[in-house]
Structures are given as structure tokens and as C-alpha cells.
Design a protein that fits this description.
heterodimer; A: 82 residues; alpha/beta; Transcription Regulator spoIIAA; 4-stranded mixed beta sheet; two-stranded parallel ribbon; 45% helix; B: 796 residues; alpha+beta; Four Helix Bundle (Hemerythrin (Met), subunit A); 5-stranded mixed beta sheet; 18% strand
């Protein structure tokens, strides 16, 4: 399992595959305040990405992947602007 | 299986597929509504595509993939089959045939085919949207789009999703809009990965196709992503990168479009003129960057070429890249160099290309004075063969030259081999008549000399016949590995589904057995494996608690033991709990409770072979339907095999299948009863004894005797066969008893005489006689008589 679900945040580590998308989604649903930590994440599957984009959880720590950081950062700032 | 074998098989199968595809394409054209035909066609193309995927045959795969997509639409009735589609498909098929020929000859595809393959794939994809008008980009073979168009095209509405500053920084950039189809995740695609790996990516923007639903309503497996990328790389690279999803991308070459902020009133012609002559001042900087980049890329290619042992594909790629770089510089000098590169023989080695490339760095940076023609002349002199070629040809013999394109493997229908088998059977029988003849010559005609000669002759014929029989059997032999191959996938899928961690070890795949045996084996083996996965191997936590490694091991091994093949399936799982098996068997009413408790643990475990037995509490899609080990046992016994199960509770289970090497020759014992001779399969016989009449106990109709401290029920064979005669008693008042094994129990058959064992070729009963289950078949004996072989299991 490449996601560790902790009390207050989910730690996505290494390569997060398509299988993890659904569990992440349900965890975020059950933990509306839950944050995600992407600092050790090398790659997320596109389905996981769209969960992150749709739910927009709080991101804690640095995002390992610069492209991913760019996208999530952009969406986060848009959210603030709105 | 090594690469060459795999390649040979690929070619063989590809030819077979193509033959089928060709036939069906023509049939479909006659009757486009026949959905079964279309399905068949699609399946063939799909198989072919799958096979192509095993190798690095990009041009081939691209065309077949496009064909598959097209056929899928036709098959699903979202697209009507028309002449245009038929033409495109047939053309693509011809191309594929050419490619396969080429692969067979050289072991690789010439890079020249790439352009044509793109063209064909594009043509196929054009048909995807009805009416032919298509969003798919026209895939051109020209690698770099430097030439400016006559008129600047209007910018699409998504062209605002990147910072304008980037456009001035990367004027040659290509913008891509990639909208993955909603079902793409189910095809195993990862659009995000594809996007991240786009060559020359400088900017990336992601949006949603439809507004994001709330977290509850979101379907995370329906792709709702909309990517816009800006890439500083030639358009052709982008097309290559997104080659599997060409209908999902839109491309925009920035240079071909009106620049940002262009005044609405500005004359389009002026713009076009400015771009058509890029030498003018504003473009000078661009030219300079371009030149630098070209040189840089050129040197990259050279260093790549110098690496030891680069593959043919890489070499081809480098050559293509060099051509593209030359055409990018576009001046006369480069064009001349391009021609020289094209003139180089396709078999030129990496070192040759590297030397050439070093001497011809574009943009006037050439070092050394040697001209292109000299180098290329040297190349043609060297005339190196591609590395794979010699190796692939080496194994073949000289016939190869005479039969170009002929196949070394002969495919023969099984019925022809069966016919051979029948004939050799008759031959064996005819041959067996010779000893009788020799006997007659000696006894009836008193010709000892002649009898000896006949016997000598018989020995020769016997040897030849045996060799022949052996050779024919060899033709029918197949390695058991052909069945084992599919296990890897099965174990992987099921263990994943069950959340178990299982590794599969296979040994002895090369062990051979008769084709019929192997084919009959596939289902039982899969059943056993599923059982092991489902019931045997525990979940990782349970394993850890039990002190075992979390990863379970299933081992499948095959070996030959005299004339039988032994296949063992061993798992280190939980084993079978004898008490639970007893309880379940009683619960399901399979055996009485008192009997269950008297069974030893070893015997209790065997209860799982009873029909209708299942220990699963829940019916899953894997097991629990009560169709279980009894099916396995029946399937194995049908081919004269045995199943043995031994299990240590908590430690694991071993299932041992013992199968005949071949079903062609059966060893039988000939017995006599009521003046008739019958055969009984040797593997069922436990012993032959003579029992005195006084030792037989009669109880009502049943009679029994005690053999080695065990009660054995006795049945007169004559009665079973409805022959009106009593079993003969010999001069000592003894009866001949043939003890056979029946479902683990011993039963005695009362017969008149034993006549020893013999090898026969068993022919099953045909026509109306096939209803007689009491007989396993017939065999022709050496003296010309027919022997009926009994099937004691059905008789009793």
C-alpha cells in the first residue's frame, strides 16, 4: 500500500497507483479536515490526481513532484481567490 | 523460451492471424451485419496487436492498434461498415503482411516503414468519426514543421491557458490540449504520467472537462481531466508521444498561429510574409537558438551512438533524429548532408554512423575535411549486416535460400497424426501375427529353419515398428509448460483479488506428455491452483501469526517417472483440517457420522474428493459451489491418471497427479471367463489370487472372502456380463480371483483363467456400441482375434 492513512493526514508515498484512488477518495470523504502529505510521493496516477483536484484537501509538507506541485498550487490559489 | 523462439512463434501466429483476418475482411464486406463474423475479426486483430506488443515493432503495432480501434467501433455498431473502411483495413493488412515478412527476414522492421505506418494509422483513424471529417491530426511523415504556413490560423479558445511570456521565450513551441476519454483508466492508461513525460514540456495546466462534482458524487474512475501543455519540441515528437491517443489530443504550433495581442486590423498577409522568411531580423534570434539546439541535440545523438551495444531500434531512432535535425537547419549544406545520410545503407553499424555524424555537425561546425560521398562509399564497402540478422539465419539451413518465405514448421491437423497413430497400431498388430506364424511353421509344418527365419525377420520389423511408434508419439508430445504458462497470470490476478501475497514457482516445464493428456490437464490444474489460493494460502496477517513468511509459495513441478508424468502442486498454506472435513462431510450428508469419526486423519482428508464436498462457508466466485476436487479427480481419471492428496494441517498441502505419458498404448491383463477372453486395464489390478471354494463365505446373494486380513467382496464376472455359466473351479477346488482397486476399495472378480499381460492399442467403441459403458474398448490381438477390454468401474 503506497498510502498510509494516519489520524489527521494521509501520507502518499512512492508511486500511488490507480487502485488507491477509491480508498483515498473515501478517506477524504470521511475526514473532511484530512490533509495529504505528498513530500515522499514520486508519482500519482491520474485518477488519484483528479481526486486531489476535485476534493482539494489541504496539502502539508513540500510536494515532491514539481509538476504536481505546480498544478495543486495553482488550484489552491484559485480556491483562495474564489 | 528465448527471444528467437518467441519471435518465430510470433511470426507463425501473426501469419495465421493475418490469414484469418484477410478471409474475414472479405466475408464481412459481403455481409457487414454479421456480428459473429465481426467479433471474430476483432478478436483476431486483437490477438495480433497483443502479440506485436511483445516486441518493439512500433510501426506494426501502430497500424494494428488503429485497425483494432476501428473494428471495435464497427463491432459495437457505433460505426457503419463501408467501403472506405474496408479499403483502409485491407491496405493496412497488406502493409502488416509486408512487415511480418520483413521481420522474418531481418528480425526487425526497416525504419523507412515508419512513415508509411503513420500514414496508414492516420487513414484508419480518419474513419473513426463518421463522415471522414476528423479531429485527429493529419500525421505527416515530415519530422519537423519548420515551414511556415501561408496564412496564420486562428487561435483555439484553449490557447489562453498558458502565460504569454512563455510564447516569446519558446516561439517554436507546440501547444497540446489533451482530453483523455472518460474510460481511459479502464484501459490501463495513466494520462498524468503520459503528460508528465511529454518531451520538452515547459508548461502544464490542468482543468476539468466538466465542473468537479462534490466529493461524494465524484466517480474517481471516470476521467474528467483536461490538460493543456506547452512543449518546446517539434510537433512530430508530440505526435509520437501521444501516438496511442491521437484522437484525444489537439495540437497547435504556435508559430503557425497569429501571435498574442496581434492587432485585429493587422494584415494577415504581412504576418505571413514575416513568418515565411524567418531570416529577417525578428526571427534572427530564433534561428540562432535553433541552431544551437540542433548542434546540442546532434552531439547528444553522437554520444548515444558511441555507447557500446546499442540496439537496432536505437540506431534507427538516431538516424531519424539526425535527418530531422538536418531538415531543421534547412540550408543547402544540410540538405546535401541529409541526402548523404539517406544514401547510407540501412545496415550501417552504429560506429559508422557515429563517425559520419561527428564529421557533419550541421551549421558549419564540421571538423575534418572528408566529404560525405567518401564516407558513404566506405560504408557500402564494409556492408555490415545488422547484428540480429546473422544470428537468426545461422540456425537455418541452406534450403532457406531456395524457399524464400517458406516456413520451417509444418502445421498438421491432429486428425492426420491420429490417422498415422491408427496405422502404426495396425502395423503393430500385423507384426504380432508373425510369431504365431513361426509357431505354426514349426509345429504344423515341421519347418524349424523357416520358423527361425521368420522370427529373425520379426525382430527387424518389430524394431522398426517400435521406432516408428515412438516417433509418432513424439510428434504428439508437448511440454507441460504450455499449460503452466497461464498460471502466472492466474495466480497474480486471484491473489490480488483475495489480498494475498503469493509467489508461484514452476519447475520442470520441459517435461513432455501426449497432447491429449496435456490438454485434459489444463482445467484440473487450474482448479487445484484456485483451491490452493483460496483455501490453502492464508492472508498475510494469519501467516505472520503462524510464524511463516508473509508471502505464500505455490510450487508446481513436473517430472517424468518411468512411463508416467508426475505433477505436484505444493503450497505452504494452512493445509486441510481433517476434523473440519469430517464435520462438513457429515453435514452435507456425504457419509454417516459414525463412519466419519472412525476414519483416520489421512483418510478423512481424502473426503474432499467426494462429489458435492465444499468447506467454504460462503459461496464466492472462486469456490464454494461444491464443484471441486471430485471434478479434478474425474478429469484426471478419465485420462488414466491418479490424484493423491497429502496435507499437514497448518503446514501445507501437496497434490500429486500421476498421468500416463501417452494414452496410445494400454497395458492390459488378459483373462478368460466362460470361454471368452477379456482384457482388464493393468493399472486397476491389485493382485491375482486363487481362493479355495471353502474360503468363500456366502451371505444371501453376496459372497466374500478374507485376503490378508481384509474382507473382500467377490463378484462373479459371468454374472456381471450376464453370461449363463458358473465360474470354473480348477482341480484343487480353487477359484481364480482378480482383485481390482475401486475408489480405494478392493473388489474381487471371479474368473476362469489368467492369461498374462500384453500391450494393446485401445480403440474406444463406436456407433451404437459406444453406449456399452461396461467396456472400455476393443483391441486387435496378434492372432487376429478381437479382445474386449472391460471397464470394471462401470460394471460394478
Amino acid at each position: 500500500m503506497s498510502i498510509r492513512y494516519l489520524k489527521k493526514h494521509a501520507a502518499l508515498e512512492g508511486v500511488v497507483t490507480v487502485e488507491d484512488a477509491e480508498t483515498l477518495q473515501s478517506w477524504l470523504k470521511n475526514h473532511p479536515q484530512g490533509a495529504v502529505n505528498l513530500s515522499k510521493c514520486q508519482h500519482v496516477h491520474a485518477s488519484v490526481l483528479q481526486v486531489l483536484l476535485a476534493v482539494r484537501p489541504k496539502i502539508i509538507g513540500d510536494v515532491g513532484d514539481p509538476w504536481l506541485a505546480g498544478i495543486l498550487g495553482a488550484t489552491a490559489s484559485q480556491a483562495q481567490a474564489a | 523460451m528465448n527471444q528467437t523462439e518467441l519471435l518465430d512463434q510470433f511470426i507463425l501466429e501473426a501469419r495465421e492471424c493475418l490469414e484469418g483476418i484477410g478471409q474475414r475482411l472479405l466475408q464481412v464486406e459481403k455481409d457487414p451485419s454479421d456480428s459473429e463474423l465481426l467479433n471474430d475479426l476483432f478478436r483476431l486483430v486483437h490477438t495480433l496487436k497483443g502479440n506485436c506488443g511483445l516486441f518493439e515493432f512500433k510501426p506494426l503495432e501502430r497500424v494494428v492498434h488503429a485497425g483494432e480501434d476501428l473494428l471495435d467501433r464497427v463491432r459495437n455498431h457505433t460505426l457503419a461498415y463501408n467501403d472506405q473502411i474496408a479499403d483502409a483495413l485491407l491496405e493496412a493488412m497488406d502493409f502488416t503482411v509486408q512487415m511480418v515478412d520483413e521481420i522474418e527476414e531481418h528480425g526487425a522492421i526497416d525504419n523507412a516503414a515508419d512513415g508509411r505506418s503513420q500514414e496508414l494509422a492516420a487513414r484508419l483513424r480518419q474513419n473513426l468519426t463518421p463522415g471522414g471529417a476528423t479531429a485527429a491530426p493529419a500525421v505527416a511523415a515530415a519530422p519537423v514543421a519548420v515551414a511556415a504556413p501561408q496564412v496564420a490560423k486562428p487561435r483555439p479558445d484553449w490557447a489562453t491557458r498558458w502565460p504569454e511570456a512563455l510564447e516569446t521565450q519558446y516561439p517554436q513551441a507546440v501547444a497540446v490540449r489533451y482530453r483523455p476519454e472518460p474510460e481511459c483508466f479502464f484501459k490501463g492508461e495513466d494520462p498524468w504520467n503520459l503528460v508528465k513525460l511529454t518531451p520538452g514540456l515547459v508548461h502544464l495546466d490542468v482543468a476539468s472537462l466538466e465542473p468537479w462534482p462534490s466529493a461524494d458524487a465524484l466517480d474517481c474512475y471516470k476521467c474528467n481531466l483536461d490538460f493543456v501543455l506547452l512543449c518546446d519540441t517539434p510537433k512530430a515528437y508530440i505526435e509520437e508521444h501521444f501516438r496511442y491517443v491521437p484522437e484525444q489530443i489537439e495540437l497547435m504550433v504556435l508559430a503557425e498561429h497569429a501571435p498574442v495581442g496581434a492587432a485585429a486590423g493587422a494584415s494577415l498577409e504581412a504576418q505571413a510574409a514575416a513568418q515565411a522568411e524567418p531570416v529577417r531580423d525578428p526571427m534572427q534570434a530564433v534561428r540562432e537558438t535553433l541552431r544551437k539546439r540542433v548542434v546540442q541535440l546532434w552531439m547528444d545523438q553522437v554520444s548515444l551512438l558511441k555507447r557500446p551495444g546499442i540496439g537496432l531500434g536505437t540506431l534507427g531512432g538516431v538516424r531519424r533524429a539526425l535527418t530531422a535535425l538536418l531538415s531543421a537547419s534547412g540550408d543547402d549544406e544540410s540538405l546535401a548532408a541529409m541526402a548523404a545520410l539517406a544514401a547510407m545503407p540501412p545496415q550501417a553499424s552504429a560506429a559508422q554512423v557515429a563517425t559520419w555524424a561527428q564529421q557533419h555537425v550541421p551549421g558549419g561546425a564540421q571538423a575534418g575535411g572528408s566529404d560525405a560521398s567518401g564516407v558513404s562509399a566506405g560504408n557500402s564497402g564494409a556492408g555490415g549486416l545488422p547484428p540480429g540478422d546473422g544470428a537468426r539465419r545461422g540456425g537455418g539451413d541452406d534450403n532457406n535460400n531456395n524457399f524464400q518465405g517458406g516456413q520451417k514448421v509444418l502445421k498438421v491437423g491432429q486428425e492426420k497424426i491420429d490417422r498415422l497413430m491408427d496405422l502404426i497400431g495396425e502395423m503393430v498388430v500385423a507384426k504380432n501375427a508373425l510369431p504365431y506364424l513361426a509357431q505354426r511353421a514349426e509345429q504344423v509344418f515341421a519347418q524349424r529353419e523357416l520358423a527361425r527365419e521368420i522370427k529373425a525377420q520379426y525382430a527387424v520389423i518389430n524394431r522398426i515398428a517400435e521406432d516408428m511408434q515412438h516417433a509418432i508419439m513424439q510428434v504428439r508430445m508437448m511440454p507441460v509448460g504450455t499449460v503452466f504458462q497461464r498460471f502466472g497470470r492466474l495466480v497474480r490476478d486471484i491473489s490480488k483479488k483475495l489480498g494475498k501475497d503469493v509467489s508461484l514457482e514452476v519447475e520442470g516445464e520441459e517435461t513432455e506428455a501426449d497432447k491429449n493428456v496435456i490438454e485434459a490437464l489444463a482445467d484440473p490444474l487450474i482448479h487445484i491452483l484456485r483451491n490452493s489460493l483460496d483455501h490453502g494460502i492464508e492472508l498475510p496477517e494469519a501467516r505472520r501469526k503462524a510464524g511463516k513468511p508473509t508471502q505464500g509459495v505455490i510450487k508446481v513441478s513436473a517430472r517424468q517417472e518411468s512411463d508416467r508424468v508426475i505433477i505436484e502442486i505444493t503450497d505452504d498454506g494452512a493445509g486441510v483440517d481433517p476434523q473440519r472435513v469430517r464435520d462438513k462431510a457429515v453435514e452435507r450428508g456425504l457419509i454417516p457420522a459414525d463412519k466419519a469419526q472412525t476414519l483416520s486423519d489421512v483418510d478423512a482428508v481424502q473426503l474432499i474428493f467426494l462429489p458435492g464436498f465444499s468447506t467454504a462457508e460462503q459461496i464466492s466466485d472462486l469456490s464454494g459451489r461444491g464443484v471441486g476436487m471430485d471434478v479434478v479427480r474425474n478429469a484426471v481419471e478419465r485420462i488414466n491418471g491418479h490424484v493423491q492428496l497429502s496435507s499437514q494441517f497448518g503446514k501445507g498441502t501437496v497434490i500429486r497427479l500421476s498421468l500416463p505419458l501417452s494414452m496410445a498404448v494400454t497395458n492390459v491383463m488378459v483373462i478368460e471367463s466362460a470361454g471368452r477372453r477379456f482384457g482388464v486395464p493393468m493399472d486397476m489390478i491389485v493382485e491375482t489370487v486363487r481362493v479355495h471354494g471353502d474360503d468363500i463365505h456366502h451371505f444371501k446373494q453376496a459372497s466374500t472372502t478374507v485376503l490378508r486380513g481384509k474382507i473382500v467382496p467377490l463378484k462373479p464376472l459371468n454374472e456381471l456380463l450376464a453370461l449363463d455359466a458358473d465360474a470354473q473351479v480348477n482341480s484343487d477346488g480353487e477359484l481364480a480371483v482378480l482383485v481390482v482397486r475401486m475408489l480405494g476399495e478392493h473388489v474381487g472378480l471371479l474368473v476362469d483363467q489368467f492369461h498374462g499381460a500384453t500391450d494393446i492399442i485401445l480403440k474406444p467403441l463406436e456407433g451404437v456400441l459406444s453406449g456399452l459403458t461396461g467396456f472400455a474398448g476393443t483391441a486387435l490381438m496378434g492372432d487376429g482375434s478381437v479382445l474386449m477390454v472391460l471397464n470394471p468401474k462401470e460394471l460394478l
